[in-house]
Write a structure and sequence with these properties.
The protein is mainly beta and 321 residues long. The chain is built from five helices and 14 strands. A 14-stranded antiparallel barrel has the order 1-2-3-4-5-6-7-8-9-10-11-12-13-14.
């Protein structure tokens, strides 16, 4: 009976999250620290169209839904590198440590911009080479599972520093999340960037997934206070370890409702496959093995074309010990 009450309460939270007003508000794009909307730290999430709140687990869950760290049973460290757009890059280092039934997670995320890849202009429109854009986030998370991990809860506190061409801002923000798993079906929701709404982009994300041994289908909705409701979805194909003998290999494809951004004329191969005019699809893969030097090891990769803006890439390496 308790589990049914939990499910009912979770469904109410999920429905209230995804029914936030879908139209863009009058203050669209006005929150500071917009870089918090960039999906750094998880190529898997990026490849699945940013639909990860119900799937998130382990070290790369800390950015998307801290509750996902609750399933960790060993220490884990993960490094991710994101080559975003116009020379913007992010490096993320995440660590999870079981403390009995509670999981501690620590994350550091550093982001900066390469001046050679961005057309800088001053107030008069003249080209300049000023490149002092450096942002970073340091966070600590706690997560715990209940009822044999049927219900998972987590929270994150983060310190945010934003430096845009000499103007520096620091802020504190918090995330809280929950996951509910019933057999092959899972639900997830997270309230992110809880803080000063003018300084950080407060948002709510909610989603669900259904998985089998050979495939997983996932969907998610996310709403920031300064932007319209957006949706993402993805499909993950699992080539199981018993087939490959040494590892599990996952293939991923995703879709996200962002605006298209023109035509990519630089990457010829995108035109050949008909992806030079879209910014909504993503692809990736993951490799997982427990037999590399006796440690659990993961390698993930994702790419997303962004039309005329270029193509974003992200990869990560994780080790469980």
């Amino acid at each position: 009976m308790k589990q049914y009450k939990i499910i009912a309460a979770f469904m109410i939270l999920l429905l209230s999250a995804v029914t936030l007003k879908a139209d863009a508000p009058s203050n669209a794009g006005t929150s500071a620290s917009a870089f918090l909307k960039i999906g750094a730290g998880s190529p898997r999430a990026m490849a699945l169209g940013n639909a990860y709140v119900s799937l998130a687990e382990g070290a790369d869950a800390l950015y998307w839904n801290p509750a996902g760290a609750a399933v960790s049973t060993t220490k884990e460290v993960e490094f991710a590198y994101l080559n975003w757009l116009q020379g913007y890059k992010a490096r993320t280092l995440a660590y999870v440590q079981p403390l009995g039934k509670t999981i501690l997670g620590l994350t550091g995320n550093y982001m900066d911009m390469d001046s050679s890849e961005f057309d800088w202009r001053d107030e008069q429109g003249y080209k300049t080479f000023e490149t002092d854009v450096r942002n970073y986030i340091v966070s600590a998370s706690l997560a715990r599972g209940f009822f044999s991990d049927v219900l998972q809860l987590g929270g994150t506190a983060k310190f945010i520093s934003e430096n845009n061409v000499g103007d520096t801002y620091t802020n504190l923000a918090f995330d809280v999340g929950a996951k509910l798993k019933i057999g092959r079906f899972g639900l997830g929701a997270a309230v992110i960037n809880i803080g000063d709404k003018d300084e950080v982009p407060f948002g709510v994300r909610a989603g669900a997934h259904f998985g089998t041994k050979y495939w997983t289908l996932v969907g998610e909705a996310i709403k920031y206070t300064d932007y319209r409701l957006q949706y993402g979805g993805g499909l993950e194909i699992h080539i199981t370890e018993d087939l490959l003998q040494v590892a599990r290999f996952d293939l991923r494809v995703g879709y996200y409702t962002r605006e298209n951004t023109g035509t990519n004329y630089e990457d010829d191969w995108l035109g050949k496959v008909g992806l030079d005019r879209t910014s909504r699809v993503s692809f990736g893969f993951g490799l997982y093995s427990g037999e590399i030097f006796g440690y659990g090891t993961s390698i993930d990769y994702a790419m997303t074309p962004f039309g005329a803006l270029g193509t974003a890439y992200q990869f990560s390496v994780g080790v469980q010990f």
